[in-house]
Write a structure and sequence with these properties.
heterotrimer; A alpha/beta (287); B mainly alpha (291); C mainly alpha (222); A: 287 residues; alpha/beta; D-Maltodextrin-Binding Protein, domain 2; 2 domains; three-stranded parallel sheet; B: mainly alpha; MetI-like fold; flat
Amino acid sequence: MLHKKRKVMRMRFAAGLLALAALATGLTACGGSGASSIVDKAKDDKKLVIGVKIDQPGWGLKKPDGGYAGFDVDVAKYVAKELGVPESGITFKEAQSANREPFIQQGQVDMVIATYSITDERKKKISFAGPYLVTGQDILVRADDTSITGVESLKDKKVCGAQGSSSPKRLAEKFGPDWESKNLTQQQGYGACLPLLENKQVDAISTDATILAGFAAQFPGKFKLIGQPFSEERYGIGLKLDDKAGRDAINNAIEKFFKDGSWRKAIDTNLGEFGKYFTTPPSVDRY
Amino acid sequence: MTERGATVLYDVPGPRARLRNNALTLAFGVVLLLVAYFVWTKFDEKGQWKGELWQPFLRADTWTELILPGLLNTLVAAALAAVLALLFGAVFGIARLSDHRWVRIPAAVVVEAFRAVPVLMLIFFAQYGGSLAGLVVTEFTAVVFGLTVYNGSVLAEIVRAGILAVPRGQAEAGYAIGLRKNQVMRLILLPQAVTAMMPAIVSQLVVLLKDTALGFVVAYADLLNAGARVVPANYANLIPSVIVIAAVYIAINLALGYLAAWLERRSRRSRKVTADPAAAERAGGEVAFVR
Amino acid sequence: MEAVVDELPVILGAFWLTVKLTVVSGLISLVWGIALAAMRVSPLPVLRGAGALYVNVLRNTPLTLIIVFCGLGLGTVMDVQFSDDLSLNSFWLSIIGLSAYTSAFVCEVVRAGINTVPLGQAEAARAIGLTFLQTLRLVILPQAVRTVIAPLGSLLNALVKNTTVAAAIGVMEAALRMKNLFDAHGDAIIPIFLGFAAGFVVLTLPLNLLSGRLARRLAVVR
């Protein structure tokens, strides 16, 4: 009798362990959607998980009303609609600069629309639809600072960048490791750089003009853009490496987005006066 | 006997000492106020007291939509990591006491190694190593992995010390009445050890909760992330936001701290305990105080 | 394995930074922590209150938050600037954060050490006519110091690991360097991790052994 009871107890304990293990693996496994195309997933489930920035004013921003706002968010909604997914079927998820490729590779998101530059390096791991916007690395300075006129002026200036972003790396390569050590600080996201710039801990923030414009619009009159991009960044929509069908469908959606005037409208609503820096949509690169 | 007010350092103050103490109180009070005033004016100078920076925290939706989801993520990660770490700690703590060398030694190596490695490194490793092995490693999984392995190893030491702190006679008495090894462990040693270990375990769990903030560095959408990224992106109020979030953390940790103190008092009062709680605490070493 | 060998100078450099962070913030924490303990056991309620407030606030705030605040807030609000060299500046800012945090724990350890000395010891000392300083120097501190050695050792041990949190404001210590090496050598993640983990074992193991040994040798039998 006692023996039996003990056996039951032991089984219960084992069952508990199993449940815990299942919980742990289940938590890691969710989100994997297999190898099928995003087009099929959108058609069958009427649901998509889209990676966006949540802390980038003008591009991807989580609002206190529970929604998301920004140019990338508008692109996401438009593309999703074209794939047959209503706005209510979209789950937005934060994609931080440092974790966008693993996000797509591991299937945690179906696509990433997060001020995401198309590069050959990244094309080895994932594929890109688009570009839907072409911009370049620019420099944000305090409104009254006239000493910085272009990228060369940064040689003896202090610059803030975000950890994991490619923009500070480009400057570090240009000016060398000594400059990197003395003149570059890398924080958790570009939002953290703004107070540093405002209070003269650094003299400039350098990354894509888009991101800088979004922040500058948030602090009217305090900052200005130099307006001389010294790189070309082509923002694409990241998705799984082998999803050719998905890429084609999204490229069609983007072209429609350009043609029917939604592109211009989205730029102007999200960036206000800074919309002037972004004049024409690019042409889609089908590779 | 001793009079009220005497401490190991100071005798009960006489009239002269009282006068001196009053003067010193005034002096230090003024110094502290000056420091506070200096900080206040610095904040004022930089416009950090401006109403529009603090007002968002009076609005309900700032809390319900931006901050509380972060807090929830923090608590979920902490809770899951706590359960897994306790399991890890129990298994490895008992394994280190095994009679079999082939169990004891690997367990000791695992515990000692993971105790030495910083949680942040474990989190980075989970992210990169996991995707290398083709696993899906979310920031959540990485954070829970790091917290589980590190705190589990520390808890293993607490468990081991707690069991060792039960007087030997207890186990001997168990064997004398014919109990087997696992019965002695399960029926005699563990129940007594757990009571003794409780305060150390709870303080380690407070450590674990605080360490979830490391998730910020890998962009886990936790409470700190809400305060340092999400809220300021809406209201451009980084410094006020970080201060408010700090207050939330302090409130939660103080509450847990009081819980730990209450548990400790209760286990001290309880006459059933034969193991010494302080012994378990000491053995945990860094446990009780650190982080 | 090759990656670890190739990058050895970089790895050693990162650990050198970790050691510097530990030593400097360890010393500052010790001094500031003892000062805080003195405040908390003083006969002046103002100082006791201020000390208690400091300890409770700092001890219950996550270190990551403290360091982020030091990295962003000290410079922008309090105009604290240590150097024109940004790496050096964030190095010192993170030291402020690490010390501010660790000193709260040092304070509690020291205060507990003082409280373990039985009241009778001090009363006996006063009864034979020792002055305050003599009581402190000859009777209380020798006993208190011995009881705090083991917990201070554990604190130092934790501090070694806590220095990695400085990564949050871009200090290139061991953890952030490891992450960057992961990015550069995607095929050597396990060797690189093992290399860095070994580094931390090397740093913490002797500390553990030493403080355990000292504590046992100096233990006060009561």
